[in-house]
Amino acid sequence: MSRHALALLTWMIIVNIVATDSRPLAQTSPAEDTLIKKARAIHEKAINLDTHIDFAPSDLTGERNYTQRLETQFNLPNMIDGGLDALFFSIYVGQTREAQNPDAFTAAGYERAYKLAVEKFDAVQRFTREIAPDKIELALTAADVRRIHAKGKKVALMGVENGYPLGEDVARVKEFYDRGARYLSLTHNGHNQLADSHTGERDGWKWNGLSPLGKQVVVELNRLGIMIDVAHASKGSMMQIAALSKAPIIASHSAARALCDVSRNMDDEQLLALKKTGGVIQVFAYSSFVKTTKPDTAERSAALATARKEFNLPSPTGPGQRARFQAALKALPAEQFAQYEKKLAEIDKEYPGDPAVTLKDFVDHIDYAVKLIGIDHVGIASDFDGGGGVVGWNDASETFNVTLELVRRGYTEEQIEKLWGVNLLRVMDEVQRVAKDLQK
Ligand SMILES: [Zn+2]
C-alpha cells in the first residue's frame, strides 16, 4: 500500500481505536478490547514524558497560544486528548555554517543567537506563569515533575538544543540554568564553537570531537546539574562527552543507527557508551530517522500535488508543514475526504510509492535499544513541530497509540512506565545529585 493511502487508512483506524474509550466498536474483538483497556490503565497511571518538542515563540503569546487547538502537532488540547503529561520545550537556535554566514562565530553572531534563545526561554516562562498557570506548570527538578503531575496539572520543562547561543562565555551556562534549562545539547546541525556535529560525516571535521571550550562547558553542565544531551553530536563528540561527564548523559531525541543508517542516529558502540554513563536514549518518532524511504518519482509527486491543489490542501513537506497538512486533512468534510482518498488510491495504482513510516517501525527502534542496552536506558520523544511523519504518532493527540503498541508487544506496566518517564527522571535526579557533590 502506498504511503498516503496507508497514512489515511491507519489514521482512520487509529481514530476509531482511540474513540473506543467508552463504547467498544463492533469490529474490535474481545481480546482487542482487553488489550486496549489494559493499555489505557497503564497510560493513565504512568507519567508520560516527551523530551523534545519544538515551538515558535509566536505560538505562546496572549492571542495565539497552546491553550488553543492550533494546527501544530503539539498543543494543550492535543496533549490532553493523547494523555501526554509532561514535555521538554526545546530552546532551539539554529545556526548556519561559517561559509554561509561570515559573522556566525563572531560576537555579533553569538549575540543574535543569544537573543533568540532568551526569547524562547521567556515565551515558556510567560506561557506557564501568565497564560496558562492553571493548566501547566514549569518543573525544574524531577521531584517537581512528580509533584505537578500528582496534582493533575501538565508539566513543562526546558531543554536547550544547540550550545551556539552560549557564545564563548562559560558563565552563560549558569544563566541558562537560572532561566530553567535542564538539558543542553552542545551542537545542532553544523559544527560550532563547542563541538563537532554529526554533519561532519558529510562535511569533514572541525575539532575531532569537543573543542577546548566545549570541554569546559561539559564540566560546567555537570557542576550545575544540567543533563548533557548528545542528540545531533558527532560520534567523536558524543564519545568524548561520555568519557568526560561525571553524570549520566542523555540523547533527547535520537534513534538506532542499526535500523536507520543516518549520521544523526547512534550506533551500537555509542549506545553502549551512553548506557555506561547510566544515561538514556529517548528514541524519537521523526520519520526520516526511523526508516529511510525512497523518494517519490517526479510523476507521483506531480500527481499528488495536483490532488492536493484540487482539495485545497497545503504541501506536507518542510518543517511544521506536516502538521498543517494533517490539520487541513482532518478538517475536510467526510464526502470530500472520501473523494480525496479515492483520488489517492488511483494515484497509488498508477504511480506506486514507498510504504509509509509507521508506529511499528518507530517501536522497532525502542525494541532494538532495549535489547541492546536494557529497559533502564531507553525513553521516548516525539520531536513534534520539528519533525513527525510517523503514521500512528504524528501529533500529541495520538500519544496513547505508543503505549498500546508497547502493550501489544508484551511490555509490562513497569517497563512501560520506565520508557515513558521513570528512566529520564532517574537521570535527572542523578545529575542533580552529582552536581551537589561537585559543588561541595
Ligand atoms: Zn533536533
Question: Can you give a write-up of this model?
Answer:
This protein is of the alpha/beta class and 440 residues long. The chain has 17 helices and nine strands. Helix 2 (30-45) crosses helix 16 (400-408). The longest helix has 27 residues, at 413-439. The protein binds zinc ion. Residues 161, 231-232, 253, 386 line the site of zinc ion.
Category from helices, strands and their pairing: alpha/beta
Question: What is the helix fraction of residues, given as a range?
Answer: 40-55%
Weakly predicted, low-confidence segments: 1-25
Supply the number of helical segments: 17
Strand content: 5-15%
How many strands? 9
First-residue to last-residue Cα separation: 61 Å
Small ligands present: zinc ion
**Shape estimate:** globular
Main sheet characteristics: 6 strands, parallel
Walk me through the topology:
Blueprint: H1 3-18, H2 30-45, E1 49-53, H3 76-82, E2 86-92, H4 107-131, E3 136-138, H5 142-150, E4 154-161, H6 171-179, E5 181-185, H7 200-203, H8 212-224, E6 227-229, H9 235-244, E7 250-254, H10 268-276, E8 280-284, H11 287-290, H12 298-310, H13 321-331, H14 334-350, H15 359-373, E9 378-381, H16 400-408, H17 413-439
Parallel strand pairs: 1-2, 2-4, 3-4, 4-5, 5-6, 7-8, 8-9
Helix pairs in contact: 2-16, 9-10, 12-14
Bound molecules: zinc ion.
